[in-house]
Structures
1.
Amino acid sequence: MNLLAPVTLTHYLVLAALLFCIGIYGAVSRKNAIGILMALELVFNAVNLTFVAAGRFRPAPDAVGQLFALFVIAAAAAESVLGLAIILAIYRRRVVVNADEMDLMKY
Amino acid sequence: MQALLFYALAAALLVSAGLVVTSRNIFHAALWLAVALFVVAALYVMLGAYFLAAIQVLIYIGAVVVLAIFVINLTRTVVGAPVTLARRWVIPAALVSALTACLIAVALAKSELPGGPAPDTGGVDWTSALGRHLLGDYVIPFELVSVLLLAALIAAIAIVGKDREDEK
C-alpha cells in the first residue's frame, strides 16, 4: 500500500463508514442516555463527511454536498437540544439517566 | 503530503471516536467527542469546505458538546463515578456494528466511484456558492430549517419548564 498515493473518494467513504459503525456500536452499547446521544452525533458526522466528500469528488464539484451537510447539522442540533431536554426532565422527576431504567411507558 | 495528513487525521478521528463510545467516564467521553468533531472539521478543511468547518466548530463543539457537558453536570450522580457499560449488550452491539459495516462494504464494492484525486476546481469560492444555493434553489428547505429550530426551541422550553411548575 502506497501511503503517498493521492487521497481518493474511497478513502473518505471508508473512513466515514468506520466512524458510522463506531457510532452505531456506541448507541447500542451505552447505558447512559447522554452517551447514546453523543454516539449519535458521531453517526451524524459520518453522514456529513460522506456528503461533503461526495460533493467534492464529483466530476464537476459543486456545493450541494456541503448544503446537505449544513441541513443535517441544523437537524442534529435540534435533535440534541430536545434529547437533552427530555433527559433532564426525566432526571428531575425520576432521578434516572440510564436508558434501560426509563421504562415508565413500557407497561 | 496531503495523503499523510489524511491518514494522520483519520487515525486521530477513529481513536477519539472509539474513546467516545468506550470511555468509562461520561465526562471524558464528552471531551473526546469534542476532539473527534474537531478532527472532522479539519477533514472539511482538507476537502475545501471552509465554511462548513467553521460551522462544525461553532455549532458542534461550541453548542452541542457544551450542552451535553451541562446536562452531564446537572445529572450529577454520574460525574466522576465510572459509567459502566451495559456488559451484556457489548456483543450484540459489536454484532450490529459489524453487520452495518458489511452492508456498507457491499454497497461500496458495488458502486462505481470516481477514482483518482479530487478534480481541480481552480479556487472556487464554496462559501459564496453555498450562499447562492441557500437563497436560490434551496430557499424553501432553508426556511423550513428555521421553523424546525424554532419548534425545537419552544419544545425544549415546554419540556424542561413544565417540570418546575409541578414542583411548586
2.
Amino acid sequence: MTKKFIGKRILRNEDPRLLTGGALFVDDVDIPGMLHAAFLRSDYAHAHLRSIDVSAARERPGVVAVITAEDMGDEWQPGPPLVSPPPTVENVLFNSRTQVPLVKDKVRHAGEPIVLVIAESRYIAEDAVEDIIVDLEPLDAVVDLEKALEPDSVLVHDDLDSNLAAHLVQKKGDYATIRENADLLIKRRIVIDRGAAVAMENRGIVAQWDPKSQHLTVWDTTQAPIPIRNGLAARLGLSEHQVRVIAPFVGGGFGPKMMMFYPEEMLIPWISIKLNRPVKWIEDRRENFYATTQEREQIHEAEMALTRDGRILGVSDVILHDSGAYDPYGLTIPLNTQCHAMGAYDVPNFFSEVTVIFTNKTLTTPVRGAGRPQGIFVVERLLDLAAKELGIDPIEIRKRNFIPPESFPYDHQIIDQAFATLIFDSGNYRPALEKAADMIDFEQFVKVDQPRLRAEGRHVGIGIVSFVETTGVGPYEGARVTVEASGKINVATGVGTQGQGHFTSFAQIVAEQLGVDVSDVHLVTGDTSAFHWGTGTFASRGAVVAANAINASALAVRQKILKLASEILEAPEEELELEGGKVRVADVPRISISLGELAVLANPLRGAVEPGTEPGLEATAYFGPKYGGTAFGAHAMIVEVDTETMMVEIKRYTVVEDCGTVINPLIVEGQIHGGVSMGIGNSFYEKLVYDENGQLLNASLADYLIPSATEMPHIEVSHQETQSPLNPLGSKGAGEAGAIPVPSLFAQALEDALYDYDLEIMEMPLSPNRLFELLHE
Amino acid sequence: MKIDGEYIFDGPREQVWEVVRDPEVLAAALPGTQKLEQTGENEYEGVMNVRIGPVGGVFSGKVIISDEEPPESLTLTVEGRGNPGFVKGSGRVNLSDQGDHKTLMKYNGDLQIGGRLASVGQRLLDTTSKSMIRQGLEALNDALQAREAARIEGGEVDYTPPTETKFMAAVTKDMFGQMFSSPTAKWVVIAVVLIVIVIAAVILTL
Amino acid sequence: MRKLTDVGVSVNGTNYNRSVEPRLLLSDFLRHELGLTGTHVGCEHGVCGACTVLFDGKPVRSCLMFAVQANGHEIITVEGLGTIEQLHPLQESFREAHGVQCGFCTPGILTTLIPFLEENPNPDEDEIMHAISGNLCRCTGYQHIVEAVKLAAQKMSPVDEV
C-alpha cells in the first residue's frame, strides 16, 4: 500500500502558534492572585545546616510565606525513587537515596534549596531571600570519583559506610580467558566530564488549587505529566482524578525534564494548597546550572581483545559513574553505557563492572544520549587504536566486526535499562557505513585531498564512526482516537512534547489510517485530563511507542468506520475506501458518506447500543513492546585544526541514519541536526567545571558554551530504513541518535588531523586549551 | 585561587609590622570595611562591603593571625560569608628590610571562593583581587607614611583613607591599565566590557 | 512600597501607559505587564537572545534593559510580525523549512532577522549564520533556520531569474 502521509515531509501543525508567539509555555500562565516563589540555595557543596533566621524575610512587605524544612513538619519527605535496580541481574548492590524538598540537616550539593519564599512578585521574593541568614558549617566536599571511595573520604550520606551508591557486574561469555589468547590487547583509561542539557527554556511550575471543586491544576515543564500527576496525588493525599498536570509547549526537554519530583515539583503544588493561592516558580538560568540535573561524568578502565586481523574477541569496561548527591534514577545511565560498549559489533565476550558513586554535585539523570555516548566512545576509541596498531583502516575494521544482517535478532545476553535482555531487533550496518563514507568522498579525501593539503602544512583530518542506539522501550503508551461530528479527528495521548513535532507526526499516522488531511487531525498531549495512562517522552520512544498506540487506535476506529459505513452504504467492507474525509465505494465514488456524518450516525439519539459495542467512532488502544528496537547510524566528518589557535573547523559532516520506518523525514532530520549540535558541544565546547570544593565555576551561558550558528557545519543526512519487527509501523526512535557518536568522531578526526603529533584522545570534552595541553605534553 | 605577590613599603620594617598589626589602620586602609574589631588576642571580626566587578555585597567574617614571628612574618587566615558567596583562605606574609627606609613585603596564599562570585565571576577574580590587594597595600603605605610623618613632626596623623568610590575607580583603572599594555588590548577590553555587562545583568536579577 | 515611575511606550503600534518599578526588566514588562508572552526569557544575562525585541527598529536584549528605558520609544515584538491567519513571509518560511522545533528561541531569532533582511535582502549562508550567531538554539542545529532565511529572502525580495 503506497503511503500518502507516512514518510512525507509534512509541514508541522503546531508551527503557526509557535511562530506568532501564541503558544503557551509555563511562564506564560497568568492567574489572578498568583504568587511567586524564589529559593534560597546553598552556596556550599557540603555543609551542616546549623540554623536559619527567616525573621527579617517574613517581615518584608509583600512576602506571604517563608518555609523551611522544619516548617513542613511531617509533610517533609524525600522524593520517590524513580527506577529500581534491575531485578534480573544478580548481586546488584544499590543504596537508594533521593532528593529532599528542602535541606533539613545537611547540604549535599551546591544549589540545594534550603528556604522557600513566596511573595507577591519574584522581585520581592528574591529581595526576601537576601534577608535570610543561614548558618552553614562547611565540610570537605566529595568531588573526585576515585578519592570518593578511599577509606578516609568524607561521606555524602552519613548513614552509609562509604560513598558507594551502587555496584553491578554484567558478563557475557568469558572475557578473562579470551584475553589470554588475544593477539592484541588495547587497554586505556577514558575520562568523560560533566555536561548539561541547557534547554533554552528553564524549568517552571504553576500550581492552582481550587478549594470549591477540590481540584489541583499544575502546569509543569515536564516530559512526564502522567507519573507526576500520580505521584503528586499520592504525596498530597488526593485522588488521582483531583489532580490535573499539564505539560504545555515545553522549550526543549533533552532529559532533565524527565527527572521527576524535583524539590520544586514537590513544594510548589503543596504550598499552593496550603496558602490557597496559585503559585508560580520559574527557574532562572543560574539556578538551572545547579538545580536541574546533569550527566556524562564517568571514568573508564577499558580493554579490547582482538585477533591480528582486527576481529574483536571481547571487551572489558570497568566504569566509575558519578551519581551526584542522590540517585533517584537508579542505574539507567550506566546500564545504557554498558549496553553500548559493544557498539554495533559482534562481540562474543564481555565483562563490565559499574560502580556508582555519590558526590557533592548536582544529581545526574539522563541527558540526550543517556549514557550511550560514553559506551560508544569507549568501543569506537579502542577499535580505532586497534586499527592503527594493526594497520587496518577504520572503515574496514568496522565492517569486519559488524553484526551481520542474518544474525538478527541478536542477543547480547546482558540486561538493558528496561530490565529486559539486550536484543538488537534488526539492522543492516555495512551499507550505512559505506554510504556515509561515500557521501563524504572518503577515499578521495584520504588519497588525494589530504596529502595535498598536508603538503601545504595544513592539519586536516577525517573520521568515520558507527553507533547503535537502543530506543523505543516500554512499558507502554496509549491513545484515544475520536471522529467528531465536524469530520475532524481528535487524538489524545499521554507523552509530553518538547519540540519533536508530535502534533504532526502523530497526526500523519491517523491521517494515513483514516484518509483525512493531516491538518484535520487535532492532537492533545501532555494533559492528564485528556489521557492519563502512560509514562513519558524519553529514550527516543515517542515515535515508536506512542505512535504505535495511536496507529492501533486509529486502526480500530477505521474498522468501526468500515463496519458502520458498510451497513449504511449497503456495500461490503472490502469495496470501501477512506479518502478525503469520506468513506466511499471504490468503484462508484459518488456513493459516499463523510466521516462527520458517520460519526453522528454512530451516536444514536434513538435505539440502544448493542452489548459489546460502543457509541461513536472512537477507540482507545495501547502499545507496549517487549523490548525496544535498536537504531543504527554512521557519521563522518572532515576537520581542519589551526595549530596556533587550536580552533577546530568542521569542513564536512555526513550522517546516515537508520531508524526504521520514518514517519516524517523533515522532523527526523531536524532531530539529527539538533542532536549533532549537542554532540559537537559535548565534544569541544561544553564542560561543567567543578573545583575541589564542589563549586561550579561556569554557571552561565557566557562561560558554559553551547554551539551557536557559526560553530555548526552543514550536515548532509541520508536515511536507510531497516524496519523493526517489533511494531506494526516498523519504526525505531531517532531523538538521541545525532548526539551519540559525535565525541568518538571528534577524537578520531582530530587524531587524524594532528597526525604529526602522535596524539591519543581518551577524554571528552576537549577545548582549544586542552588540545594545546595535549599537544605539548 | 593562588594569591602571591610583592610590595615595597616606604618605611622601616618595625613600622610596617605595627601598621599591619593595627586593626584601626587596616580598617581604614581597606575602604568598604564597615567594622573591624579585635575579638581575641589574634582574632578580628569584621563586616566588609566587597565588589568584584558588579558582583558585590556585604561580607562578614573573621581574620586570624598565627605563627607570628615579629617583625618578620605571620600567617593570616580569613573566612568570610555573604550574599555574593563565601571566601576562605590563608596566606603567609613576609617582611624583609631593604635598607634605605624600605621594606619588602612578600605574600603568598590560597583562597577558596564559592557562591555567585565563583560561578559567574571567574574571569574577573584574578585581575580584580590582585588589583584590590595592591590598592589596599598602597593605602597601607600611605597610612604608614602619614604615621611616620606625624611621629617625626610630633603632630596628628594626617591621613585620609581613600573613599570606596576612589578605591574602586583605582581598581578599575588598574585593570584597564593592564589591558592596554598588550597588543590584543582592544579585543580584551571589549570582551571585559561585555562580560561586565553580562555579570551586571546577572546580579540585577539574582 | 517602592517608588513607581511612569512609562509610555508604543508596542507593535499600540500605545501603553503604565506605572512601574524602575528595576522592572523590559522583558518582564512586555510579558507580564502587557501580556505579550511571545518574547521569551532564556538566560537573563544577555547571551541566548531569546528575549530579543526591536527597539526603535534595532534588535536589543529586553532582559538587559529596564522598562523605564523604553519610555517614549517604539518596540516591536514577535506578536507584531504576523498572525496565525496571516503569517509574515519570514514566519511562513520558517514553517516551510522546518526551522522551528520547540519554538522557544524562535521569536528572538525572528526579530533579529527583520532588520537584517532589510539591510541584506540577498544574504548568503555565511552572512545569515553570522546574523543569528547571537541567538542560541538547542533544538535545530541552525541548519533549517538558515534554509528558512534563504527562503524568506527570496520571498521578500525576489531576485528575478535571468
3.
Amino acid sequence: MVSLNVLVVDDEPGIRSGINRILRNYTVGYPFMEEDFSFELTDADTGEKALEILKEKKMDIILLDNKLPGMDGIEVLEYINKNQIDVSVMMITSYASLELAVKATNNGAYNFVPKPFTPDELRTAMEGITKNLFLKRMTKQMDQAGKQVRFQFLSVLSHELKSPINAVEGYLNIMKDKQVGDDIGDYATMIDRSIERIKGMRNLIMDLLDLTKLESGKKVREVKPTDITEIARLAMDTIEPMAIQRNVKVYLDTPENMVFKADADEIEIIFNNLISNAVKYNKEGGQVHISVRAEDNSLKIKVEDTGIGMDEDELARLFQEFVRIKNAKTRNITGSGLGLSIVKKLVENSYSGQITASSAPDEGTTFTVVLNKSTNP
Amino acid sequence: MNTEKKNILIVDDDMDYLSQLELQVKGMGYEVKTARDEKEAEEALDQGKPDLAIIDLMMENKDSGFILSYKMKKKFPSMPIIIASAVTSETGLNFGLETEEDKKWIHADKFLEKGIRRDQLEREISKLLKL
C-alpha cells in the first residue's frame, strides 16, 4: 500500500470533514499498478495556510476550493505553478464558469469537481487523479532510465569513434615531423595501420546506421517470399576476400530455392554478421559451415566455425552493445562491437525469433538463429 | 647527470597508440618496454622494476588500468605511475588525482588524457622521475 498525501483546502469545516470521511478508508487500485493507493489527509482553511503547508511538506494531491476568504484558489494555483511544485491539483467549485475553468487549466489544474458533490463523485475524481499521477511518475522514471542507457551508449560510442581518429592523427603527426627519417618506405607500416583503422571506423559507421534504422523503425520493411539461399551466397561472396586472406574455407549446406517470407536486407545483415564473425574469429586453415533449414513456419540458420572459441564469461556478454571479447587471441581482430547486438535486435524484434551461441575455447563457436513469421510488417 | 637511461613501461591494448607512444618516449631518451594487457605487464614487472609506468585505463575491462596500477604499487611502491585514458573528455567524468582521498583508491600518481602534447608528456615524466 502506498499512501498519498492529500491537502484539502476549503474554508467550510463541513466540507473538510466530509472529504475526510469519504476518503479515510478509500483505496485506489488498478491491475497494472503493483500496489494500491490510500490517502493521508491534511486540512487548510485558507489559501495562505495551504502555502505554508506546501513549503514544509511534500503533497501529492490538492483538493482546492476556489472561493476562499483571503487569496483565492486560482492564486494558490498560480503560486504552485510559478514555484514548479510537483503536485496534482483538483479544483472544487460551486459555480463552474468557463472563465474559471480556462484560467485554472492554464495554471495546471488537473480536474474539476462541482460542489456539492456526492461521495461517489469524489471517489471517481480521486481515482482518475491517482491513475494520472501514477502514470506521470512511471513515465518520468522510464525517461530517466532511458536517458541513462543512452548516455552510456553515447560515451562508449564516442570512445570507439575517437580511438581510430587518435591513432591515425598520431601516425600523421609522426610523418609530418619525419620522426623516423626522410624515406617514405620507413613509414609503410604506419600508413597500412592508418588505412586499417579508417576501414574499421567505416565499418562501425555502417553498423551504426543499421542500428539506427532498426531502432527508429524508420526503415520501410519489405516482407515478401525471399530466396534465402541466394542471400546466403551473396553474403559468402562479400566475405570471400577476407576468407581467402585468412585461409578459411566456407561451406554452405542448404536446399536450392529455399523461400521464406522475410525482408531481404535484414536477412543479409544477419548472414553478413554471422559469417564474417565466423571467418574473423577463426584459425589459419579453419572452416565455417553454414546450414539453413525450413521447419514448419520457421527458418533455422546455423553458422558453425572451427575458430578460437570463448569461455562461459565471454559467451554471457556476447550480445551486448560494444562488447568485444578482448584477449590475446582477439586483439588483432577489428570489429565495431555492434554486429551481434544488431543481429539479436533484428531476430527478436522483427521475427520474434531467438539467437543462441555455444562455444568451447580453441574448438569453435556455433550460432543458431531461429526466425519465425515476420512481425510488424 | 645520470649516465644510465631510465626505463619506462608502457601498457596499452591499442597497438597503434602503443607504438606511437613508444616512439615518442624513446625519442625523449628513455629505454622503453611495452605490454599489451595486464598479463604481459605483470610478466614485464617480473623481469625487474621500471623507473616509471604509463598505463591505459580501459583495456580488457573498463577498469583494467586501476587494477594494474594497484598491483604495481603493491609490488613496487616507489614506482611512479601515469594512467593515460581518453575517458575524461568523453564521459565528462573527471577523476583528478589532486586530493589525498583520490590517491587512496586510485593508485596512480598522475592521470593524463590521451592525446596530450609531447612536450607536456615529457614534462610530466621528468617531474615524476625527479629529473
4.
Amino acid sequence: MSERAASPAINGDAAPGAAAAQPQSRGRSFLRRLLRAAPARVSLGFLLLLAATVILVPLCSPYAYDQQDLDLIGQPAAPDGAHWFGTDTLGEDSLTRVFYGGRISLCVGLASALVATLLGTAIGALAGFFGGRVDQWLMRGTDVVLSIPLLPLVLLLSGMFRPGLGSLVLAIGGLTWMATARIVRGQVLSLRELEFVDAARALGAGNGRLILRHILPNAVGPITVSATLAVGSSILLESALSFLGFGVQPPTPTWGNLLNAASPWIGTAPWLALPPGLMIFATVLAVNCLGDALRDALEPKD
Amino acid sequence: MSQAWLLRRLLGVVPLLLAISVLLFTIVHLAPGGPTDVYADNPSVTPQALAEIRIAYGLDQPLPVQYLRWASAMARGVWGYSIRTGRPVTTEIAERLPASLLLGGTALALSALLALPIGILSAALRRTAVDRVLTLVSFAGISVPVFWLALMLQLLFSIHWTLLPAAGYETIGDTGVLDHLRHLAMPAAVLSLATIANWSRFLRGSLVDALQQDYVRTAYAKGHGTAGVIVHHALRNALLPVVTIISLDLASLISGAIITETVFAWPGIGRLFVESMDARDYPVLMGLMMLGSLALVLANLCADLVYTLIDPRIRYE
Amino acid sequence: MRGPRTPIGARASVAALLLSFALVSSVTSVAAPLPLPSASPVHGGTLTVGISYDIDTLNVYVTAALGDIEAAVVEGLVAPDEHAHYVPVLATEVPTLANGGIELTHQGKAMRVTYHLRPGVLWQDGVPLTSADVKFTWEAVKDPHFLAESKDGCEGVESIDTPDAATAVVNYRSVSPAFASTLFTFGILPRHLLAGKDLNHDPYNDKPLGTGPFMVSEFRRGQYVVLDRNPLYWGRDAAGRPLPYLDRIIFNVIPNSNTLGTLIRAGEILFAPRIPVMLAKQLRGTAGIDLVTGPSLGWSYLDFGMKQVPALRDPAVRRAIAEAINRAALVKAAGNYPQPIHSTVLPVFETLYDPEPDAAVPDYDPAAANAALDLAGYPRGPDGIRVREGRPLELGITTQSGDIDGEIAEQILIAELKAIGIAAYADNKSGIAYRQARYKGAFDLQYGRITTAADPVYSMFYGTHGPLNGRGYTSAAMDAALARMETSLVPEERRAAGAEMQRVFARDLPSLPLLSYVSIAAKTRRLQGYVTNPTNMTDFVGVAHWWLSPRGTAP
C-alpha cells in the first residue's frame, strides 16, 4: 500500500510560486490550466458529486444507518427493490451505510490531511526559515519518524489507546506530515533569499510576520498539492486501520470497516464488498489525479 | 567520493537508531498495562511470583534505567522473550522472516521486471493514448486499497475460477516449486502493485527529462535509433532518481506486507505483527519495529551510496 | 482475526463419580445427509485440520487455548467421553466408592483415590509408563515456579504413594467430588524426560511426549503442527486391530475465518472444529461438507459491571436492561443454531435446572423496560438518551476483538439498548487485555461466551470470592445457596439449593444469560467415526477412532 503518491517534487524542487503580482488573473488562468485536462475535470466533478451524495443520501434514505431489520438479520440479503445495495448481516441497509460511511471516511481523511499539512508546514517553514541548527534538528526529527514503517506505527498507536475519531485523526495526521515538511522547507529555503523578503524586513516585519504574511502565501501552491495528496493517503490509511479491526468501530460505518464486515461473505455475498472498496478506490484515484493536475497547473513550464 | 563524507554518513546511522529506539520505547511504555499483564489475571500466579517477574523484567526501575537496560540488551542481540510463547523474540522473528523475505523479494523483482518496460514505454510514447492509459493505470495502482484488491483477486481466482489457492504458503503436504509459485502469485502481485505504479511513473518522469537533454539530441543527430538512445544514453541517467525512491518504497512494502499477509494467511513477520498486537506482546512488537526501522535506515544509506557511486558529478561536501 | 476462545480458566470441576449426568449428544448433519455406504474402518490417510486460534504452547497445563492437539498426543488417567461420563484411559477403571477405588478416610473428612495403571503402556519413546509418572505429574504441576493456566486439583492432594509401578494412591485432604477434573485428566507428564527440568522453558512445550495415539513430528509455529501415528500405541479397536486408523494429522493455524472457509471448500482442510457461526452459515449446502452440531456446555451472557458503573448497581436498571433484550434477534443472527435461555443453569443439566418462572430472568418487554427506567430516575433527554444528573446513560460493551460472532451480537445489543434510551458503544479488547478486564471487572457491560465442564462450579462466577466474579457481585443469600449446592452429596438437597440459587439469581441479576450455544464443526463427508465431545477436553479425545474413507467412495 502506498501512503503517498510518487512525485519527483518530493525533494521540494518545484519552482517557488511566482510572486503575488497579479493574483486575480493568475488565479483565473491557473484554474483554466487546471481544468484543461480531462482527468482533472472528471476528478473534480466526481469529488463534488461525492461530497453532495454523502451529505444528501443519508438524509433522504428511508433507513437509518444503524437500523437493523429483524426479518433480514442473520444473512446478508442480495440487492432488491427495497435495498438497492442489499443488506448486511444485521439487516442494515448497505446503501445508506456506504454513503454515511463516506461522510466519516471523507471527514477523517480531510481532517487528518489538515493536521498533517499544518504540522508539516509549521515544521518545514521553521526549518527552512531559520536554517542552521534549527533546520538540522528538525530535519533529523523528520528522519527519525520517516525511518519507522508507517502502518505498524499507526497500528501500534491506535491499538494501545481507545480508538476515538479525534485520536484517530491525530494519530494519522501526526505521522504523515513529513512529505509536506520537506516540500515546504525547500520552498521556504528558496523564497527567503528573494528580494521581497529583504524589503519586508527593511520595513520592520518580524520573523513571524515574514513567514506567515510574506513567504508562505507564495508557497501555497505546493502546499495545496501536498495537502490534496495527503487526503488520499489518509483515506487509505484510515480504511486499512478499520479493515484490520482498529480505527472506527461499528455501528458507525466507514468504508474500511464496511469492508471488514464484508470480507467473511466475499464468497457468498460479494455485493457487500464491492461498493465500499470501489468508493475508496474512486475517491483516492480522483484525489490523486486532482493533486497531479494541480501540480501541473502550478508549473510555469508545460 | 570523499572518505570523510562516507565516514560521517555511516556514523550518522547510530544516533538515528538511538533516537528511533527512544521514540519506540516511549510509545510502548505510554500504553496502559505492560508485560506482566499476561500473568496478572492468571489465578495460579501468586503475587509473589508476579513480583519476581516484575523484578526479572526490571519493571521496578525508573524508566530511563529501563530504557538503558533494554537498549544495551538490544544492541547485544538479546531481544527478550515473547510474552505469548515464552520463546526468544529473535527466534520468533527468525522463524517468520524467510517467508516475508520471499514475498517481499518476489514483489520487488516483479516490480523491477514490470516497472522498467512500462516506464520506458510510457516515456517513449509520451502523450499518446498508450501513455495516457498507462499513466491512469499507474494512478489506479497507487489508489486502490490493498485489502480490497486482495479480496477481489481471491474472489476471482480462487472462488470463481479455482485457479489459484486462496491462502497459505504451500498446500498442506505438498512442497513442490510449482505449488509454492501458485501460492506466491496473488500475494506478490498485490504487494507489488503500488511499487510498480510508483516506479514506472517515476521512471517515465525522469526518462522524459533525460530525453530532452542535449546529449540525447546529439545521439539522435548521430543517427542512433530511439531504442538505442533510450537504452544506452538516457536510461542510465534516468535510473538515478529512481534509486532515491526505492528506499521509501521499502517502507511501503513493509506496511503493505501486514495487510497482504493477513488476507492471504502468509506466515511472515507482517502477520506476526498483527498477532503480537492482539496479544499485546510488546517484546516482539518492539523487536519488529526496530528491525523495520533498521531496514529502512540501511536502505536509505545504501540509496545514498549507490546514488553517489552512479553519478560521478555528485559530491557531498 | 481469531475465532472465539472458550474456557478462559473455566476448566472447572467435574463431579462424575458420585453423580452422573447423562447428556444426549446429538450428531446432526445440517446439510442434507446422504446415505453412506456402511464401510468398515480403513487404516491410512492424512487428516488436515484447520484451527483458528494461534498455538501458544503444546503443554496442556499451560495453554490458554483448548487442547485439541494435546488430546491426540497426551493421555490422562481418565477422560470424559461424548456423554460427559468418565471412562478409563490410562487407568484400568474409573475409581468410585462402589469399586473401592475411592475410600473415605479421617472419619469421612478426607479421601483416598487409588488408580491401577493399564499394563503394557509405553511412552512414545518406548519407555514404560509407571506410577512414578503420576506422582511426578502432581509434583511438577503444583510447583509454584511452573507458570501454568490449569492447576486445578493440585492443592487438594496431600500426598501420593506408589506401592508398585502400576498403582498410584492419591491422598486428599478433604472429600472432593471434583477430583477428576484437571489434574491427571489433562495428561500425565513423563518423569524420565522432565524430572529436574524447568517446565516453563523445556522443549516439551513444543514437542510433548505422551502415550497417546499420535506423536508430534513437527511444530512450525504460526503455521502447522504435524502429528504422526504412534506405532507403540496401546489402543485396539473392537476387532483387535491397532489404533489409530489415521496415519497423520496436520493442524493448520488459520486465524482468518474467510481463509478457513475457502480452504474447506477447496478440500484442503478436511476438518475444522468449533467454527464461528458466521462461517457455518456460509458453508451450509456445500457439497461434500457436513456441518456437525454438538451440544456445548456453553452459553452467552451479558455481564453487568457493577464495580465500574453506579447506575448498574440499581437492580431496577439491570432489570430494565434484561427486558430490553430480544433473544430472537440474537438467535436469528447466529443462524438459528443456539437456543434462548433464561437461567444461568443450562436446561441440559436436568438435575439442577429449575424451569419455574420465578427462577427465570425477565424476558423481552421493552415497554416495561422504558417504564422502569423512567421510574428509576432516568428521564429521556432531547436526543432520546436517558440522563441522570446531567450525564447521559452511556455504557461500553466489551467483547473479544476479532470474535466475529461476538461482534455481531454486540451490534444487536447496542441497537436494543438504544431502543430503551441507553447509548451503548463497542469497547472491544483483544486477547490478554480482554481477559484482564473480565477478571478485574474493568468494564461497563461485558458480552461473552463461556464453556464449562460437565458440572460447572457456579461459585466461581457468582460467589463473593469467586475468581471469575470480576463484576463484584456479592449476596449472602447466593453464597448460602451455592455452598449448599456444592458440598452436598444428596441429589434432592442439591436440586433444592439449585432452585434457590436460580431464584436469587433471577432477583439479583448479576449477569444476564442469553443463549445456549452449540458447537459446530465442519468436516468432509469422508471423515467417519467422528463424535462431538461437549466437554472442554475437545473432540480429539476420541481421535484414535476416526478414519477417512478413501477418495471417490463417499458421495
